């Protein structure tokens, strides 16, 4: 039962987190550096609504990714009890950063140094060594917008469907003093404020999609080299299901003596808004997309979540630490406070072209302050495809991919090797992805 | 919750993040907590006697409290603790010996009622200034003390003057120049 729970949790994490952290489930896409596949690909319609109208090209396939990374996780579940000798916070955190859908062949070594704390009456220094890299100078920011595939139907160019939308974001920052002390091993100083700020938010909503996608210009009838402009628009009527945000500040100010007789109080304040389904209101959002195919070149631009907002009736509460008793308390300030949440737009620009038997594809995706780009190549030799690619991840590190595909009739098998730095210390790891392809 | 513990959270988090067989090393500069005027003892003239005059144990630091980062033992298991002390002895005239003793206890116990955690024997030679360093491994009691949030420290001196009649009186001073404790802890169960 425990293993099933872990597996289910891991799958849920993969679904929710994977798009944000750059893990690609489709083995063909992984091998091509994570690039958006031409002809829409598995994620094409989600990132660019116009791909709904683009006819499947020759050799188009649907992928079925295999969760081979779950095998070692299920056979050897991580220890969750801190008193268990096998308990490893580092590996647990990395599992969250790097959902185990693909098999991790090379995982970064945990920091190998000791943690050294040096203290005296007027000085304190904490040397975390490599662990200090966990605290980047500009803070840690991550988030995701996930949209489940819509269940619905279409009539001619119009379509309607039901889907769900989930978004989360977290922004953790340390002030310069605390960052210097933790990341660089600077000595804690007297009469100095050390502060940590964390802003977290998350929301989920049901979405009724109404849209249109079709060719707005077509000048060639050739299936091999269509010359056409496709456009699409998708309106989303949203119904809020759950919402929460929290703005937390934790700080302390040292006195004249770090470890003198007077204690230093830890200050904590938090402003929290939350709502359940009963507090969920209506909202709306729009997606627009365009795909231009000309002379063998495919160019797509998709913008999702334009002016996406959801209305809520939230509970506002304040959490704080009592400086006298040291106890933490949360007090409701207002009930049914009108609140409007927003989801930042996601822009995806992709291009692809065939040069003989070689397919070249590239994309750039921007969401909030997070920009990623990818470039991928594929070449077929009979039933065998050789793929490679590279991408710039959210940490601005170049990651590489490569892999093979084999096709037998309408059935195919894909394997991919790709590097990633989805871990606490942003060191490079290597993963293996696999999946089946069904050719149309 | 005091900041001391908050700081420890980061240290413990780092340790746990490091995982494996890596350790948390806690270096405590005990001397920094003590009043510098209390860490030096001046003596003399101590006249000679057939077996040397013995001062008995005299307090240098009677009772000092040290605030540490509490809670080490709640997240880690102490593997080793050691304590070292250096003392500079300056002998102007006369020969003699001294023994410095360090006592440590929890906040509810008089440190001088517990066994000394370290003894530093010093031999004084006329006209010589010398540094003596003694290092010793601590026991479970010392490990527990440095795993806690506070401890008490007392330091005594026990001087014996020149032996034999007619020899020069002893004049000089002893100053503690370093008093450090190093605690090495690892994850529980390792």
Task: Outline the fold blueprint.
The complex is a heterodimer of chains A (440) and B (190).
Chain A: H1 2-21, H2 27-31, H3 41-47, E1 61-66, H4 70-75, H5 89-97, E2 103-106, E3 115-119, E4 124-127, E5 140-147, E6 151-155, E7 158-174, H6 176-183, E8 187-188, E9 193-218, E10 228-253, E11 266-275, E12 280-294, E13 297-321, E14 328-343, E15 346-355, E16 358-367, E17 370-381, E18 384-392, E19 398-408, E20 411-420, E21 429-439
Antiparallel strand pairs in A: 1-21, 2-21, 3-4, 4-8, 5-7, 6-7, 7-9, 9-10, 10-11, 10-12, 11-13, 12-13, 13-14, 13-15, 15-16, 16-17, 17-18, 18-19, 19-20, 20-21
Chain B: H1 3-18, E1 24-29, E2 40-46, E3 54-67, H2 72-75, E4 76-93, E5 96-105, E6 118-124, E7 129-137, H3 140-147, E8 150-160, E9 170-187
Antiparallel strand pairs in B: 1-9, 2-9, 3-8, 4-7, 4-9, 5-6, 5-8
Structure description:
Chain A: Residues 144-338 form the DUF5723 domain. Chain A: It comes from Eiseniibacteriota bacterium. The complex is a heterodimer of chains A (440) and B (190). Helix content of chain A is 12%, strand content 55%. Chain A is built from six helices and 21 strands. Chain A has helices at 2-21, 27-31, 41-47, 70-75, 89-97, 176-183, and strands at 61-66, 103-106, 115-119, 124-127, 140-147, 151-155, 158-174, 187-188, 193-218, 228-253, 266-275, 280-294, 297-321, 328-343, 346-355, 358-367, 370-381, 384-392, 398-408, 411-420, 429-439. Chain A is globular, with a radius of gyration of 25 Å. With 190 residues, chain B is mainly beta. Chain B has one domain (3-187). Chain B has helices at residues 3-18, 72-75, 140-147; strands at residues 24-29, 40-46, 54-67, 76-93, 96-105, 118-124, 129-137, 150-160, 170-187. The longest helix of chain B is centred in the N-terminal third of the chain and has 16 residues, at 3-18. Chain B starts with a helix and ends with a strand. Mean pLDDT of chain B is 84; it is low at 1-19. Strand 3 of chain A pairs parallel with strand 1 (24-29) of chain B, so a sheet runs across the interface.
